[in-house]
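Design a sequence for this backbone.
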């Protein structure tokens, strides 16, 4: 059966269409997470009293905006307010710039094309105007992808794909769906689910990140173990480059030279703008549930995660928190008496301060899910895992896209949070965790920092390593930026020294760029730059990003 979509867009499945997005933080302004007093006491004990900063009002940034340098164009919005709202992403340096009112450079205009043809016209306009172009999806980058370059005299045009979000085609015979690349996660899933399908790509930024952004940053969803990373889901598409249109057809497999999809995956806007993307979808699963285990120590839990990843079961997620993250998760949750009872029970069973928490997603048909869970329970039990049913898993599932709102709550109490992530082969996982957490602690000197880690995506070969750090906000913008710079440099150098990738799921942008050569080598960097020069001879596409 072949289905061609109608013009209208299906309603969002996890966000109100009338909601207002925070201009200087994460998510919907109507969503607010309260930190219980027990959680604040836990943070004060480890970090000291937080002092909330006085955030700069958006009116100040709008009033200080320099005039646009772009020639007039009917499709480009040059108002200061629109430019401010598209000037930064969601990295900690972005937050600091927005909250302290220290944005040095705004885009000179923002365009909202509705078709590939309009994107093509905008690229031609930018070339003639001597402007550089920044593709903009959901604005969720945490490594500087959408920030205007500070060292350029050229005007900057940001091209938002917010109006290119329709399901253009659903070929049920091949299970391929083609979307406008600006479709955000909830809209994408809503348009598929009314037809009985899912993509299954659920990054934590799902509410606002877009299909195009996932592709060009090589994103990984929380359930990639079962559904696959975006490079496994991306089947083809259309890319408007300064030199012309690159159309990549969809075929199930090919031996015809270099796979052109790989030129787009991870390209971060350097070769052009992905306007349409075809992805491999599947019927909605008949059964999906999330289950929790506690383990007495990390070594046993890691052995269980490794064995589960290699068992070939119908699992969609394996997520393992180390002892520090397990404790922090329990402390920051508003568990009350139930939490106290849980901790007493675990201690009685011999699961003390070194306990770790494993969450496993079981996804598939009913019989396959049932047998997968039985096998997973056997593997976990052999490694000392204490099965806790679906209670912990349901809690995780309920909050899977709301946990990121914790950044707002922490800031309001005077604490900042940042994350780093990598991936390594299994023999290096433990050393990598220790190296990252140790580097972060050393970078802060006498100032306290609280770090913890989990394995968010596991493979037969190895695992991702995802670390979170919380620290007190300093009084000034400069102090906070310097703290972050020391932290980022220290943990990035630790990642490189221990043989990890500089990014497993966030991409490169500007923040990871200095460390990319260690992974790709001089010849690899030269090859990428040669590609960029060929498709973008005037170097207008997202300069300063990637390499």
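Sequence:
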């Amino acid at each position: 059966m072949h289905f061609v979509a109608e013009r209208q867009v299906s309603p969002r499945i996890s966000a109100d269409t009338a909601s207002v997005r925070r201009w200087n933080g994460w998510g919907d302004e109507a969503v607010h997470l309260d930190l219980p007093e027990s959680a604040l006491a836990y943070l004060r004990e480890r970090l000291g009293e937080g002092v909330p900063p006085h955030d700069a009002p958006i009116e100040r940034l709008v009033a200080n905006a320099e005039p646009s340098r772009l020639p007039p164009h009917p499709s480009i919005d040059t108002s200061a307010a629109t430019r401010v709202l598209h000037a930064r992403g969601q990295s900690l340096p972005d937050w600091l710039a927005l909250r302290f009112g220290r944005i040095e450079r705004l885009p000179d205009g923002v365009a909202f094309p509705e078709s590939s043809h309009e994107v093509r016209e905008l690229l031609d306009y930018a070339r003639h105007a001597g402007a550089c172009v920044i593709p903009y999806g959901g604005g969720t980058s945490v490594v500087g992808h959408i920030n205007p370059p500070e060292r350029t005299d050229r005007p900057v045009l940001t091209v938002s794909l917010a109006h290119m979000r329709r399901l253009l085609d659903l070929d049920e015979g091949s299970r391929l769906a083609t979307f406008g690349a600006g479709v955000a996660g909830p809209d994408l899933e809503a348009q598929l689910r009314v037809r009985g399908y899912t993509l299954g790509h659920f990054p934590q930024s799902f509410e606002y990140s877009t299909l195009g952004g996932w592709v060009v940053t090589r994103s990984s969803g929380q359930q990639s173990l079962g559904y696959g990373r975006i490079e496994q889901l991306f089947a083809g598409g259309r890319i408007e480059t300064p030199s012309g249109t690159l159309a990549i057809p969809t075929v199930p497999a090919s031996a015809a030279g270099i796979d052109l999809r790989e030129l787009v995956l991870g390209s971060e806007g350097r070769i052009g703008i992905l306007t349409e993307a075809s992805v491999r979808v599947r019927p909605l699963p008949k059964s999906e549930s999330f289950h929790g285990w506690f383990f007495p120590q990390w070594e046993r839990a890691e052995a269980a995660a490794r064995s589960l990843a290699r068992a070939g079961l119908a699992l969609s997620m394996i997520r393992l928190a180390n002892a520090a993250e397990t404790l922090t998760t329990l402390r920051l949750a508003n568990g009350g008496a139930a939490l106290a009872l849980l901790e007493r029970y675990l201690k009685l069973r011999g699961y003390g301060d070194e306990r770790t928490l494993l969450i496993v997603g079981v996804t598939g048909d009913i019989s396959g899910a049932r047998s997968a869970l039985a096998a997973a329970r056997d593997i976990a039990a052999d490694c000392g895992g204490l099965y806790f049913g679906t209670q912990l898993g349901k809690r995780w599932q309920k909050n899977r896209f709301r946990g990121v709102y914790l950044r707002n709550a922490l800031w309001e109490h005077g604490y900042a949070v940042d994350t780093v992530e990598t991936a390594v082969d299994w023999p290096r996982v433990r050393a990598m965790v220790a190296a990252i957490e140790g580097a972060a602690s050393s970078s802060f000197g006498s100032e306290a920092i609280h770090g913890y880690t989990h394995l968010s995506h596991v493979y037969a070969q190895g695992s991702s390593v995802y670390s979170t750090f919380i620290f007190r906000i300093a009084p000034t913008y400069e102090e906070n930026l310097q703290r972050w710079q020391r932290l980022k440099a220290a943990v990035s150098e630790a990642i490189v020294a221990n043989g990890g990738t500089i990014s497993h799921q966030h991409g490169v942008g500007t923040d990871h760029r200095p460390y990319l050569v260690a992974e790709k080598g001089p010849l690899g960097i030269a090859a990428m730059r040669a590609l960029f020069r060929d498709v973008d001879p005037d170097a207008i596409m997202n300069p300063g990003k990637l390499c």
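Residues 287-400 form a domain with the Alpha-Beta Plaits fold (CATH 3.30.70.3450).
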